[in-house]
């Protein structure tokens, strides 16, 4: 029996293109509603930073809590004196559990022995466990959400901790402790929400970026009060940008506001967060697609890399011109946005004499001169730290600010128009700081990492063709892949989406059902449940009970990520309804079967897209 009629569906609206590989790996790097606590969710959305964009969120994670609580139990005391009170309360409860039970103590001893044997110096010791936590399914399973081969290198070093962590979390009953302190975690999110929202909105405003965009990427700030407020762990994996951090107590001495007249009104520790580092990763999130869309164009800058081989910067930047260029541009933007440390003159409210205007204008000129000197000093520090293109980008941004040109519109000229010979000659004259210099500017204090690279697969080629609108080309690749391997989930998922775009909902339904029955990849299975729910909602005779069951199945899929959960929760909240097409008159009305659908989803949502296509991000 056929379930669907082609005449009742707007299929492109039902189809949300989420490239299969875009979020296969998470790493240690929305909605505006609070939702019920569910043990099955890895990340619990607290308060979405909805005004900053639908892909931007502020969240807490029980998985991250479990890892952090275990580390605290094994001697991780960093930043304890500046942490929120909830950290000491949870540590006391875990300690009490150790005192009550020999089993818990024995489990802890085994766990701590492993952690001690894998100890590394400095921030890397914490970073490797933060990375691993972002690759795990939610408690109580705490299993890998990706294959071990796809783990980041630092997470792979400590993957052996998992059976010990699972045992300790179960015996110490960490889940109940987490639930018991739900209110304190909510309060921590509330403490930082408004300041972070304003920071991101003001940054968007400077960049002339729209605030309600979604292009398949995510920026997530994960709060974990069991970690040190001084430790900011940031990761970039594929299309996921994570900042894992902890707020500190806020008092009258906390720098919540910047100097009057600064481009950003938020102080460096507003809301108890290290806002400079949050801003740095958010700028990477905004700038990355602009640079990576022009990866080939940046090859002309390769001679720069020869000059910076002795610079005190991370080895990866010395061998990756795209990453190096991106970091230099981010530092230039940071210099333009920085708090110069003194107030801008305020325009007099009432003018009693012409001299008052003259005095104000002169004070304004003096301010701009002094402020520019401060910004230029920061640019020099950046360049002497090895970020030698910062000055060139800074000059271009000054012109942008004056002419009102957006970064998106000027980025091509910045890259293509750069005088490489001049920049190489100038860089050769820059005296780099010693690696141990106190003046060194080294990546704004956060670790930048990318997902493990892998070969550009056959299905990556299909994804790229679909992004470009070549549905026939994508279908040809998927069909060949299925002919060679009928159980290939990626190819089956591609074909299901293509059937939706082609106006064949029954075919799509059958393929999505096959995926949820036999698929091994959690993300693909979860999205297939969402699509099945939407199809049940949108068929000629909607079956709401079956639709809700599919949305719940998506939520209960181990390792379901934030975008899947948001779609499923929306489906449970209200039935999916395909938007009606609007036309100016009957002569312009397209035939339902002949209308060309936009596979990028651009017609359905505002979405920033770089002017040049780029391949899907690696896992």
Layout: helices, strands, pairs:
Layout: H1 11-14, E1 43-48, E2 56-61, H2 62-73, H3 85-100, H4 102-117, H5 124-133, H6 153-156, H7 162-171, H8 174-180, H9 182-207, E3 218-223, E4 233-237, E5 240-245, H10 275-292, H11 303-307, H12 315-318, H13 321-337, H14 354-384, H15 390-403, H16 407-416, H17 420-428, H18 458-467, H19 471-484, H20 489-501, H21 505-518, H22 522-538, H23 544-555, H24 562-573
Parallel strand pairs: 2-3, 3-5
Antiparallel strand pairs: 1-2, 4-5
Helix pairs in contact: 3-4, 4-7, 9-10, 10-13, 13-14, 13-15, 18-19, 19-20, 20-21, 21-22, 22-23, 22-24, 23-24
Mean pLDDT: 79
Largest sheet report: 5 strands, mixed
Order of helix and strand elements from N to C terminus = HEEHHHHHHHHEEEHHHHHHHHHHHHHHH
Tally the helices: what do you get? 24
Task: For the largest sheet, list the strands in their spatial order.
Answer: 1-2-3-5-4
Helix content: 40-55%
Total of domains: 3
What is the rounded Rg? 26 Å
Indicate the low-confidence ranges by residue numbers.
4-13, 16-53, 443-455, 581-619
């Amino acid at each position: 029996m056929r379930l669907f009629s082609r005449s009742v569906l707007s299929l492109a609206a039902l189809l949300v293109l989420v490239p299969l590989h875009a979020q296969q790996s998470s790493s240690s790097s929305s909605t505006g509603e609070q939702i019920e606590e569910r043990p099955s969710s890895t990340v619990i959305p607290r308060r979405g930073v909805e005004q900053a964009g639908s892909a931007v969120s502020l969240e807490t994670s029980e998985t991250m809590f479990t890892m952090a609580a275990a580390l605290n139990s094994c001697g991780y005391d960093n930043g304890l004196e500046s942490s929120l009170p909830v950290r000491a309360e949870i540590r006391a409860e875990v300690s009490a559990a150790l005192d009550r039970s020999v089993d818990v103590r024995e489990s802890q001893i085994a766990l701590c022995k492993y952690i001690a044997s894998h100890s590394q110096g400095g921030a890397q010791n914490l970073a490797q466990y933060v990375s691993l936590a972002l690759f795990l399914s939610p408690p109580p399973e705490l299993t890998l959400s990706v294959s071990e081969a796809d783990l980041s290198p630092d997470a792979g070093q400590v993957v052996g901790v998992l059976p010990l962590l699972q045992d300790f979390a179960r015996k110490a009953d960490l889940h109940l402790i987490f639930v018991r302190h739900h209110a304190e975690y909510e309060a921590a999110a509330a403490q930082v929400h408004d300041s972070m929202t304003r920071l991101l909105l003001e940054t968007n405003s400077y960049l002339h970026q729209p605030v309600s965009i979604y292009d398949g990427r995510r920026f997530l700030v994960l709060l974990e009060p069991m970690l040190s407020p001084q430790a900011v762990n940031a990761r970039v994996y594929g299309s996921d940008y994570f900042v894992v951090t902890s707020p500190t107590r806020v008092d009258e001495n906390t720098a919540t506001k910047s100097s009057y007249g600064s481009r950003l009104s938020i102080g460096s520790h507003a809301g108890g967060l290290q806002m400079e580092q949050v801003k740095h990763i958010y700028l990477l999130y905004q700038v990355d697609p602009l640079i990576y869309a022009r990866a080939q164009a940046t090859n002309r800058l390769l001679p720069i890399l020869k000059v910076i081989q002795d610079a005190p910067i991370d080895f990866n930047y010395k061998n990756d011109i795209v990453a190096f260029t991106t970091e230099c541009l981010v530092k230039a933007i940071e210099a333009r946005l920085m708090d110069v440390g003194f107030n801008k003159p305020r325009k007099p409210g009432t003018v009693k004499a012409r001299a008052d205007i003259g005095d104000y204008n002169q004070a304004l000129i003096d301010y701009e001169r002094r402020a520019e000197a401060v910004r230029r000093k920061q640019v020099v520090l950046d360049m002497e730290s090895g970020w030698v293109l910062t000055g060139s980008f800074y000059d271009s941004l000054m012109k942008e600010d004056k002419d009102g040109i957006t970064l998106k519109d000027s980025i091509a000229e910045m890259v293509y128009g750069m005088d490489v010979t001049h920049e190489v000659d100038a860089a050769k004259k820059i005296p780099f700081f010693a690696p141990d210099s106190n003046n060194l500017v080294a990546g704004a204090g956060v670790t930048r990492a990318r997902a493990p690279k892998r070969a550009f697969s056959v299905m990556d080629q299909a994804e790229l063709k679909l992004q470009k609108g070549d549905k026939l080309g994508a279908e040809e690749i998927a069909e060949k892949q299925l002919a060679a391997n009928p159980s290939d989930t990626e190819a089956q998922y591609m074909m299901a989406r293509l059937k939706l775009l082609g106006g064949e909902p029954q075919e799509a339904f059958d393929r999505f059902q096959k995926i949820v029955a036999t698929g091994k990849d959690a993300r693909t299975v979860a999205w297939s449940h969402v699509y099945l729910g939407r199809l049940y909602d949108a068929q000629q005779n909607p079956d709401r009970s079956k639709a809700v069951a599919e949305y719940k199945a998506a939520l209960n899929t181990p390792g379901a990520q934030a975008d899947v959960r948001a779609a499923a929760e929306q489906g449970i909240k209200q039935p999916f309804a395909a938007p009606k097409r609007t036309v100016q008159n009957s002569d312009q009305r397209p035939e339902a079967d002949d209308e060309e659908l936009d596979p990028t989803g651009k017609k359905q949502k505002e979405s920033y897209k770089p002017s040049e296509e780029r391949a899907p991000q690696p896992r």
